[in-house]
Specification:
alpha/beta, 7-stranded mixed β-sheet
Length: 222
Amino acid sequence: PGAKRRYDFIDMPNPYAFDITEIEGFDNLHKSNGVLSWEMERAARLFKADRSLLLVNGSTTGILSAICGACERGDEILVARNCHMSVYNALELRQMNPSFIYPDYVYEEAEILGEIKPNQVKEAFQSNPSLKALVITSPTYEGNVSSIREIADIVHSYGAILIVDEAHGAHFPFSKEFPTTANELGADAVITSLHKTLPAFTATGLLHLNGDRINKDRVEYF
């Protein structure tokens, strides 16, 4: 399941049998105090985050909410140019003023982009200390991971917020052979897609929030 066209993974009753509305015992995602609340608490422990929020419609909801919650309308924001389309939708919705940093090609013939480098981030903030946040994609769709710890330290030194689209890194917490999740490396908001590198029946995302730099209640509101 999960954007893989693999029905053979599913050994379960008809999933439509589980399609139920917000009645007692089944919780309400927008005011959870039961099974969904417990699941989000379990996700936070598993992914080593301070707070985790279940998302529908995949990671797009998390990216929109993180950017809207971290920044005010019209703020200046730094964005890696290889970000997901939802990042640009958030910029348009909030009428933000973006600056861009460009990753280098690691294999130009195949148009495979590499990591965002800490020195790029430092130079951008030195040029414009008014930037309120940085949004990067790590890992990239091809698996290239940025130096999140170094980048987080730079971003925080300017009083800004680091948002990491880790959609393709949902598997990171499950083996020491994988890179460390951005939740453990100083990112303030991290978005993961369970349906990309883990099995999930539908587009299922998680938005993780960490530390006290980002207003968690404001993000949850969005």
